[in-house]
Amino acid sequence: MTRKQQRLGLLALGMAALGGATALVLVAFSDNLVFFYSPSELKTKAVASDRRVRIGGLVEMDSLARGPDGPRVLFRVTDGATNLAVVYDGVLPDLFREGQGVVAEGKLRADGVFAATTVLAKHDENYMPSEVVQALKQSGHWQEGGGTKAAVAVAPANAGGQGFPAQATAPGFPPSRE
Fold it and tell me: How many domains does the chain have?
C-alpha cells in the first residue's frame, strides 16, 4: 500500500468514527429533548402518546381535586383559550395554587388527559417561565406590569407572643398558625 492510500484509509476511518460519534450524540439528544406547548398548541398539534412534553399556563380556578386513593391530584391548566385536564400522582410543590402559573412535564394520554410526572410552580410574584409568558401573550391573556415584587411584611417584635419572634408574611397569604 502506498503512503497516499494509507492516508486516505486513515482519513476514511476518522470520518467514519466522527460520523458514528455524531449519530450517537444526536440519538441521545433526541431522547432527552422535551418540547413545550400551551394547552391550545397541544390541542392543535398531533403529539405521539409516548412523547414526553411540557405544558404551561395557569391553574384554572376551582379545578383542583384530590383523589380518594392517596396522592393523586387532578386539575386543569389553561392559557385562556383552551383548558387541559392534568392528573398527577405525587406531592405538589408548596407554591402550587389555583390561578398561579405552572409547568407540568409528562405525556398526553389517548383520552386527552395529560399525565404529569413533574409539576413545577412559579416561585414569586414576578417569575413565570418565558414559554408560559409567550403562550399567554399569544392568547391575549397577558397583562404587562401586572406583577409587583412581593414585599415581606414583618410584624413588630412582640407580635410573635410568648417570646417567639414574629413570622414574616407575604401579602395575600395568611400568617402561619405554627
Answer: 2
The per-residue pLDDT for range 3-56, each reduced to its tens digit, is 999 999 999 999 999 999 999 888 877 666 678 888 888 888 877 777 888 888
**112, 125, 140: which is closest to 55 by C-alpha?**
112
Query: What pLDDT sits at residue 142?
Result: 67
Kindly report the pTM of this predicted structure.
0.57
Q: What is the mean pLDDT of residues 145-158?
A: 36
- Asked whether residue 146 is domain-assigned, the answer is no
Q: Distance between CA 85 and CA 43 in Å, rounded?
A: 12
Q: Are 57 and 77 in contact (CB under 8 A)?
A: yes
CA 52/CA 107 separation, integer angstroms: 5
Same domain, residue pair 78 and 133: yes
Report the 10 Å Cβ neighbour count for 130: 9
